[in-house]
Amino acid sequence: MKTDETDQQLLALLRENARRPVAELGRALGLARTTVQARIERLERSGVIAGYTLRQSAVERAPLQATVLISIEPRSGPEVLSRLRSLLGVEVVHTTSGRFDLLAQVVAQTTTALDETIDRIGEARGVRSSESLIHLATKLDRSL
């Protein structure tokens, strides 16, 4: 589905606050509430809007974050992914190209918990090696 400039503006407003009332969205866009509601429904039906989610505040998020770069043995992907899914501190896993096969985003409340999660990743069967990058400060985050 093609989106027009008004759709893009609407999506930008929803990214800022998906709970913003439709009437308020209409005022911001210079459109009637019913027009905005129809656009939202069309964007949902077409899959442009796939859903709505909860974003935790910085106060609620785990204070420690790390990126773990993982190199795995050939054909061990499913087993390693199964292990990563079982670790509560592992929030996101991406496949990558280059020297590492996987990139895992890890969170923890304490340095001990972070260390233990990173150790569990390194001990997983099929993991050849890993390298951890502890996040110190966030300088830019467009997802917030």
Describe the protein's architecture and organization.
The longest helix is centred in the first third of the chain and has 14 residues. The model has no long low-confidence stretch (mean pLDDT 91). The two termini are 26 Å apart. Helix 2 crosses helix 3. It is elongated and about 60 Å long. It has a four-stranded antiparallel sheet, covered by helices on one side. The protein has five helices and four strands; from the N terminus they run αααβαββαβ. It folds into two domains: 42 residues, Winged helix-like DNA-binding domain superfamily/Winged helix DNA-binding domain (Arc Repressor Mutant, subunit A), CATH 1.10.10.10; 71 residues, Lrp/AsnC effector binding domain/regulation of amino acid metabolism (RAM) domain (Alpha-Beta Plaits, 2-Layer Sandwich), CATH 3.30.70.920. It has 144 residues and is of the alpha+beta class. Helices cover 40% and strands 21% of the residues.
- Read across the widest sheet, the strand sequence of neighbours is 2-3-1-4
Radius of gyration based on Cα positions: 20 Å
Percent of residues in beta strands? 15-25%
Shape: elongated
Number of helices: 5
Secondary structure class reads alpha+beta
Helix-residue proportion = 25-40%
